[in-house]
Amino acid sequence: MPMIRSPQAANPISRFHRTTAPSVSVGATITRATVLFVDLRGYTGIAEALPAAHVMSLVEEFCAAIAHAIESHQGRIFHIAGDGMMAGFGLRDAAPGAREALAAGRQMVRDFAPIAARWCRELSINTGIGVGIHLGEVAQGVLGPVGRKTTTLIGDTVNVAARLCNRARAGEVLFSAEVAATVESEERVADSFAFLQLPQFALRGRARPLDIWCVPAIERIALGGT
After folding, report:
1. Which CATH number belongs to the domain containing residue 117 in this structure?
2. Domain count, the chain
3. What is the spatial distance between Cα 137 and Cα 23, in angstroms, rounded to a whole number?
4. What does the alpha-carbon distance between residue 46 and residue 192 come to, in Å, rounded to a whole number?
5. In this structure, what DSSP letter does residue 97 have?
6. CA separation (Å) from 83 to 36, 48, 160?
7. Residue 107 domain flag
8. Closest by Cα among 173, 153, 154, 155 to 164
9. pLDDT in tens, 52-111
């Protein structure tokens, strides 16, 4: 007897493309927001050179400084991976949070600089942080197996922010043209940012290169590894 299949069974992903309304099949909320990634440069070398317990204490100090910068600018932390962190801005506001994310990135670099200098002086390790920021549509929802579910952000905006973070050198904040345009349009002269446009960045898998900008830094450090 021939097996009869429903249209949904024949095309199992079709049901996920019926609507772009805020509530989708996995319970996610679709919104326009800004995503920030930050990464501790030189972490592989640090983990190799120091005992694991000592590395843990350094990571805790790094996370405390980064979390303070995020929360000081109304951001929300979604993911911590030891030497890296992901945060979202503007998720509950009318504005997408670009200015807040950029301010948080600048504060991270500024606050972590004396920590990195002390680590270099006391432990002879060179490190710094790289930051990547992008603005666009994201899906916010709960993922994970039973008993281990967590709220996270998903989407192309997240991927681009992560790629920008990977490209950033120690002491550098890289962000997309979408972030730059949004911040400039707000025209808050009292809290202005200095931007520097960089050569376009070709993202693997994308047809067109990405226009990127950076916050000028006094010193950037080229470190091998992550």
Report:
1. 3.30.70.1230
2. 1
3. 14
4. 36
5. -
6. 14, 14, 19
7. yes
8. 173
9. 999 999 999 999 999 999 999 999 999 998 799 999 999 987 789 999 999 999 999 999
> Which stretches within the chain are classed as H helix?
7-10, 43-49, 52-72, 98-123, 156-167, 177-186
Domain for residue 171, yes or no?
yes
Q: Are 45 and 60 in contact (CB under 8 A)?
A: no
The CA-based dihedral angle spanning residues 210, 139, 81, 73, taken in that order and rounded to the nearest 10 degrees: 80
C-alpha 15/C-alpha 17 separation (Å) is 6
Please name the residue that has the structure tokens 């996270």.
152
Side chain identity at 66, as an amino acid letter?
I
Residue 27 · residue 142 · CB < 8 Å: yes
Phi, psi dihedrals of residue 178, rounded to the nearest 5°: -60, -40
Please report whether residue 95 resides in a domain.
yes
- Can you read off the two tokens belonging to residue 178? 């979408």
Structural domain boundaries, residue 105: 34-215
- How many C-beta atoms lie closer than 10 Å to residue 41's C-beta? 25
- The three-class DSSP label of residue 124 is coil
Reduced to 3 states (helix: H, G, I; strand: E, B; else coil), residue 31 is strand
Residue 23: pLDDT over 60: no
- Per the domain annotation, does 122 fall within a domain? yes
